Amino acid sequence: MQALLFDEQVQTIADASTGPITYQPGVISRALADAWFSALRDGVDWHSGTRMMYERMVDVPRLLGHYAVDDPALPDVLREALAVVQDNVHTPFNSIGLNFYRDEHDSVAPHNDTLHELMPHQPIALLSLGATRTMIIRRKLPPRLKIELELEAGSLLTMGWNAQLHYDHGIPKLKQSVGPRISVAFRVRSASLSQSWGDR
């Protein structure tokens, strides 16, 4: 854990009235982010998924994984990551969703998290590992602001519960080549939904 870098530079993307959404680079060092990426890439039981789109089932363009925090099979690296995230976001997270973006062809469409699946007023925290990918954050109502946020390895994005009411977010496909990325999303889900797949 000596490689942790608790950077005090927190960028405010949206304020409390419509968020909050904050971005904190360098929560862990690049070396530790690389080590955690390798451990999760090789150690998680990744699954492909499907979703309904335009009245037909289509493949989800990324691989998925999920663990409940109290799962005895929770990988040690996720226990370490949870401790780091909770040092920065003081929230009793009980669900960890993982997404593996294998290359520039993998993506997630603009969306907001489904609020009825989440405990009210608890934030979502997203730890990025691997290659940098751009997240597009758009405000739903005028002024329709659009933010392009570069999610670097070792960074932490935190979204308030109410941010899902005001903003969509997504990771678009790219035309240029890019390396693999893993996102680790920490949420507080209701007990009946704590086994649901995460996203982002």
Task: Tell me about this structure.
The chain is an alpha+beta fold and 200 residues long. It has one domain (11-46, 57-193): Alpha-ketoglutarate-dependent dioxygenase AlkB-like (Jelly Rolls, Sandwich). 16% of the residues lie in helices and 34% in strands. The chain has helices spanning 30-43, 76-88, 163-166, and strands spanning 11-14, 21-24, 50-53, 56-59, 63-68, 95-101, 108-111, 124-130, 133-139, 146-151, 156-159, 167-171, 181-187. A seven-stranded antiparallel sheet has the order 1-2-11-8-13-6-5. The chain has a four-stranded antiparallel sheet with strand order 7-12-9-10. The longest helix is centred in the first third of the chain and has 14 residues, at 30-43.
Secondary-structure map:
Blueprint: E1 11-14, E2 21-24, H1 30-43, E3 50-53, E4 56-59, E5 63-68, H2 76-88, E6 95-101, E7 108-111, E8 124-130, E9 133-139, E10 146-151, E11 156-159, H3 163-166, E12 167-171, E13 181-187
Antiparallel strand pairs: 1-2, 2-11, 3-4, 5-6, 6-13, 7-12, 8-11, 8-13, 9-10, 9-12
Supply the key terms.
Jelly Rolls; 4-stranded antiparallel β-sheet; 7-stranded antiparallel β-sheet; alpha+beta; 16% helix; disordered C terminus; 200 residues; disordered N terminus
- The H-and-E topology, N to C, reads as EEHEEEHEEEEEEHEE
Number of strands: 13
Cα-based radius of gyration, to the nearest Å:
16 Å
Uncertain stretches of 5 or more adjacent residues: 1-6, 194-200
Helical content class: 10-25%
User: According to CATH, what is the topology?
Assistant: Jelly Rolls
User: What number is the mean pLDDT?
Assistant: 89
CATH class: Mainly Beta
Please tally the helical runs, counting DSSP H or I stretches of 4 or more residues.
3
What characteristic shape results from the CA principal axes?
globular
Could you name the CATH homologous superfamily? Alpha-ketoglutarate-dependent dioxygenase AlkB-like
Just name the CATH architecture: Sandwich
The strand line-up of the biggest sheet is 1-2-11-8-13-6-5
In oligomeric terms, what are we looking at? single chain
Question: Strand portion, in percent?
Answer: 25-35%
Class by SSE composition = alpha+beta
Largest sheet: 7 strands, antiparallel
Count of folded domains: 1
| Amino-to-carboxy terminus distance | 26 Å
